[in-house]
Amino acid sequence: MPTRLVPFAIAFAVFALDRLTKAVIERTVSFWDALVVIPGFFQIIHTQNKGAAFSMLADASETVRMVVLVGLSVVVLGFIATLLWRTNSPLAREHGSVRVGLSLVLGGAVGNVFDRITRGGVTDFLDFYAGDYHFPTFNVADSAITIGAGLLLLSMWLTKRDTVRTHVSKAN
């Protein structure tokens, strides 16, 4: 497989896994039914998030949600895809974690945009909790986006650290 296509293969794998897991939940778990996996810590619960992360804009009109959430996402997806496609961009020479991070963000974002367009909201089902505290319910796409963003931050930190080391060693 050409190197240029690897990030898109990663993104597609994330999208496919996201769709598969959501389809299983949608077919086998009724809305708001909870399947306890680890008592007091983790359960699978079928929810529908009409907003963005942590239900932001969930109460906005459908038109506003579609324009803001889908429109903005499509612009960002186009930007990421362009960065990944261009072999002469500085990104192509960056540390591999940048390309993998962007690939994970791309695949996760496509998964959630697909849900917003086809279902009007995103299916979430992974629910971690401790006592009465529940972390916001999420899905595979959200996990990929978060891991991808973490890799991008790590890459930025490593690049900055290496730049500082280079400047310090040149000064000495």
Protein architecture, described:
This protein is α+β, with helices and mostly antiparallel strands and 172 residues long. The protein has one domain (3-171). It is built from 5 helices and 4 strands. It has helices at 6-28, 62-85, 90-93, 96-119, 140-171, and strands spanning 34-38, 42-49, 122-130, 133-134. The chain has a 4-stranded antiparallel β-sheet. α4 (96-119) packs antiparallel against α5. The longest helix is centred in the C-terminal third of the chain and has 32 residues, at 140-171. It is globular. The N and C termini lie far apart (45 Å).
Strand content: 5-15%
Could you give a short account of the major beta sheet?
4 strands, antiparallel
Give the termini distance in whole angstroms.
Answer: 45 Å
Q: Based on helices, strands and strand pairing, what is the structural class?
A: alpha+beta
Mass-distribution shape: globular
Radius of gyration: 19 Å
What is the total domain count? 1
Helix content: 55-70%
Number of strands: 4
What is the chain-wise order of helices and strands? HEEHHHEEH
Low-confidence stretches: none
Largest sheet, order of strands side by side? Answer: 1-2-3-4
Q: What number is the mean pLDDT?
A: 86
Continuous helix count:
5
Short précis:
The chain is of the alpha+beta class.
Quickly list its features.
single chain; alpha+beta; four-stranded antiparallel β-sheet; 172 residues; 14% strand
